[in-house]
Amino acid sequence: MYFNNNIIIKTNQTLKTMTKKTQMMFVFIFALFCNVNAQAQEAKELSEGLIGYWPFDGGSTTAKDHSPNGNNGTVNGDPEYIEGHSGKAGDLAINFDGEDDSVTTEVSLLNDLEELTLSFWMNMPEQQTGNRKGLIGQNDAVEYGMISPTSMQYWTPAGNISVDFGPTTDDWTHVAVVVNSEGFKVYAGGDIIGETSGGGPVSSADTFNMGGDGVFDATGNNFLGSLDDVAVYNVALSDQDIADLASGAAVPILRQVPLIPDLIAYWPFDGDLADKVGNNDGEAQGTEDISYDDGQFGQGIALDGVDQFVQTPVENEETFDFQDETGFSISAWYRVDEFTKSWQALIAKGEGNRWRIHRRGGEGQLTGNGGSGDVPGATGDVNDGEIHHLVLVSDPENEQVRFYADGELVSEGGAPAIQSNDNPMMIGENPDARGRTWGGLIDDVGVFNRPITDDEVALIYNGGNGNPLMVGGVIIPKPKVKLAGSMSGFSVELTDDENGSTVDAAGVSATFDGVALEVTTAKADGVTTFSYETTGLLEAGTEHFVVLTVKDTEGATHTIEKSFKVKPYTVVDAGSRAGDSLKGESGIVATITQISSGQNVGSLHGNNTANAEKAFNGWGNDPETEEAYLNEADPDSFEGWSYYPVLVPVVNFDQDGGVQGNFNSNNGYDDEYIPNIPGWGDSTDGIVGEFTALLELKKGAYKLGVNSDDGFKATIGANFTDL
């Protein structure tokens, strides 16, 4: 609600209870903030003209093409994946057996190219047995391989070149061919080892393949040895470019490697639903298109909580069954925008003895399941609009399921065997209990095929700054951003990153809905702040966009896009001001009436809040006895019904005075009995109460809330309902 004058208002609330524990408290709910930590990368990348790139890091039967063309290859035979040429964690290479192993694509990649560069790493510890062993190429167009056990050849219908090349004694060698109008150059280890004139564009109907089966001949010619980082360009790279590729000073694409080993699936959700490690690209589900919002790193998916979720491929569902003894781990960053239903699923394979991470019933915390029985939920209330991190670890060897919240181990349970099902893993939904869709942000989801350790969880969480699960190059975190928007404008907090950006307070600019703003910032203790107030109120339900341009003290410029929606509100004008005659003592007036089966004076009444509310409204007598209902909460009411108001300083009541709800003795708010309960009949049932107060509020926006486990209604302003 928004007050356009300094006014005093009167509020009231009706509370209904029967036999349930009841607690109420007036609370102020302030705007929620979203913590965003993004990343940027700087490294030398040779991606211009890249039309195919197969790093072979997926370790599966599909060789993903990481170029923009996405011409994935099919892995034939049963090649072994081995440590890649760099020796870094997560860098794999493919090892062919020389018999029936190969990688084939479905595209004639090398047709009609004026310029061409082929770049790859090879390891050939053994001499080839026979001639014409294919490395990479397209039959009858461009072919490159071991033409003999000691000679390598680049061949096209327009010309060819052969160079001496033998076994590499179990060492990796970078090999390249560059073709332009002047002819061919062949490189090994960054140096030119052969060149000739001639050549020109060629074509064929065959497809581009690696390791044989379509190089030098349509089938066969399989290579014995290993390949890594095969790259194809439709431009001629320079001598220095080739030297940089060979020395590791440059890469075709700034390729990232896993932060932690044994990462088998990874969805960063930076503008798409692709699995950057495996072959489990997500498919968007829902009536509306899934949108993207600022995540912990870059972007994340923003799900509407209605019917949106991401489904992984059905054909790969066994990947996530985890029935063996090795265990597994799930890592994700998330934000709750709104809990709207019980058991809302963050990530799930199913119910029962399948695994899942979800809201714990109707509570404000999350829990995980790694077999049967939930791990006790201990995340605390995460319905706060902030980005949080969680990890679920199933550890069969130690017979444990561990649950981590924001870097800390918060809960443990037993780890019975996981059962399989035929359902695909879903992000934002439970395949065994549909309709439990997530409402909020999900970012940087990773699946490991082993239990990760406490230290590895801490590495991912990184003190709250986080580390993405795939890393590479130089990571420069953007400043953390908090945006709070309302019907009257917004405020921004930019917090310096300990390991990254220090904000230059004089270098901050912003636009609001595309219009440039005059920004005046202040900075204290590493936090840069500014705010903007609109000339009029923004319409309820509208969405507004803020684009921040932030310079840091190192000279880097970061662009951060944020948005907020204006929630429903009511304008209360000066006519709602209460007169001075209504002012009295400080406090809240509590008026309680009770009708319960425990009455023993006058007529007996059932446990019926409807009758209690009728009596409260002065609606007459008990129709059965034609006598007035008795107010058990009034110690003087033994005939006829009466009001019995009591002045209380705070409303935090339970019908039994027990420890209930979010405000209780455990956090410094002792529960009190509802005034005059139990009544003179010693019952705690059949209660209706009204709480009224005058509030003195300055002009501005306020959000008032009621926390109760039973029914209530609240009114405000000049026409409030006073029962």
Explain this structure to me?
- The structure is a single chain.
- This protein has 723 residues and is mainly β.
- It folds into four domains: 2-29 and 576-716, no CATH class; 50-253, Jelly Rolls, CATH 2.60.120.200; 263-474, Jelly Rolls (Sandwich); 488-565, Immunoglobulin-like.
- Helix content is 3%, strand content 39%.
- Strands 5, 8, 9, 11, 16, 17, 18 and 20 form an eight-stranded antiparallel beta sheet that branches. An eight-stranded antiparallel beta sheet has the order 6-7-10-19-12-13-14-15, with no helix packed on it.
- Mean pLDDT is 82; it is low at 1-43 and 600-604.
Describe the structure concisely for a colleague.
With 723 residues, the chain is mainly beta.
Which structural class do you get from the secondary structure elements?
A: mainly beta
**What distance separates the N and C termini?**
23 Å
Number of domains: 4
Radius of gyration: 34 Å
The CATH architecture designation of the largest domain is Sandwich
Tally of strands: 54
Q: In the CATH hierarchy, what is the class of the largest domain?
A: Mainly Beta
So how many helices? 3
CATH topology of the largest domain: Jelly Rolls
Largest sheet: 8 strands, antiparallel
Mean pLDDT: 82
Shape descriptor: elongated
Strand content bin: 35-45%
Low-pLDDT segments: 1-43, 600-604
**Share of residues in helices:** under 10%
